[in-house]
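Data's thin. Show one?
=====
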Amino acid sequence: PRGRQSATWGRLFYQALNESVWSLSMLWAAECLWHAGQLSSREIEHVRERLFYPIADLVWGEWYFIHNIRMWHNASIGCIGLAFGDRLLIRHAIHGDKGFRQQLVDGYRWKDAFSCEGTLGYHGYGLTAMLFLAEAMQRCGYDPYHDPHLLRAILVPYQLSQPDGTPPTLGDMFHAKALPTRIYATALRRFPENPLIRSASALAFRQWMNGMARADYESSVWNDTTAYSFRSEVDWLLSIDRIPREDSPVHKPVTVFPDSGLAVLRPDSDSYLLLKAAAPTGSHDHYDRLSLIWWEQGVLWFGDPGTCYYSHPHHENWFRQTAAHNCILVDGWRQERCGAELANAEPDRAEGRCRPYPREMPDVLLTRNLHRCGQGWEDEVTMVSDRIRTLSVVFHPLATPRDLPTGCRAADDSGLRLAGGLISNLRELPAGEAGQVLHFEQQGRTMQLALIDPPTGCRVLLGEALQNPQNQLMRSPIVVLQASASELRIHTRFQMV
């Protein structure tokens, strides 16, 4: 663009964010060439005045609040300042009221160090910028790694990791195939004796070696992110003599993130239950309080869809909607922006509460109580309201239905408002025992979803819905349990059989 038409536009790239990320690659290149004797003092002065200082000036006041984008702006400004000894840039990027130290304190919730944006994608993205600046600080006489909160933030993706080692797709996040490899390659150099860092870095390195996190260099075009794919190789080479070879994952039976309202239960190494009773977060949040993610026998049965590109209409009209998650709706409406409370979390049980409609239905109180049962869980969802309302409990089994009862009749999704018309082939199962137990198959295993002591008039709906943002032609089963009253309990059991 000509001039400053938007506060977020760059001069070389569409966004100032891309400009910040790209400037780090250019800064590394300039420093390497300088130390190799390939740039003269006059040339260094030229790129400082014509490239790096204009970039620092461009992003000086952009996105000046607690946010992952500001973390990248700080990394750019701070690294430029440290490289050229500019105290004004250093002070602004590190000690400013939205600088490195304040981003660490407010950007990663104090009690649990999880990103205030509520998604592991932006947790790792912002933390990568923080570590790029921290590395530059460490080499210039600062000591950012003495702060224990930085270490706690580094460990969060590993502590939340699923049985296959990948982070769960909470909020606005694409499905990740690996832990954030650059973070753990760097952390291993700075915390080589920490057992959790050793375990996390060993897992991240194995994922990287298996090609899960490596770019396809032959089909890549050079852009502002390609450099970091190559940089991963350098990071691991610098840590190669410290990488543990045999460390197995180290996880507690229950991990609670009190500020963020997340509980992860691990009855064994192949079982995993995440209950989201989260506090309100920023613009990357989804309407999914009291949703869950479930693994059993090393297989994902109930997942979180994450999201697609923000410009795609399905981002807002489906992937952020309550009905797209293993979650709860009242009168078919998506939840409002709200917080929830994690009431209890133990190795074999978890409980969350929320008022998901503080403006339109403030009388509605929801509770979700999960108890371990064999190789599965019993799930009790209760609703208390001042008037008769319809409670819908939604499940998205990532498996194929088996032995469906006969006598199903067509239904519509009018009871699931704002579902975007993306639920298809919806049908109501017959009342009685045949409609109360469903079986789903995946990878040679069978999961049973059973309705226990159903309330009067409870309906069981089965259809198909979008669950994979990367393949929007593929549909997965959706199960909706519906009943109406002023006080309700829908009790289910999902387990391996």
Q: What stands out?
A: Residues 308 and 335 are 20 Å apart (CA to CA).
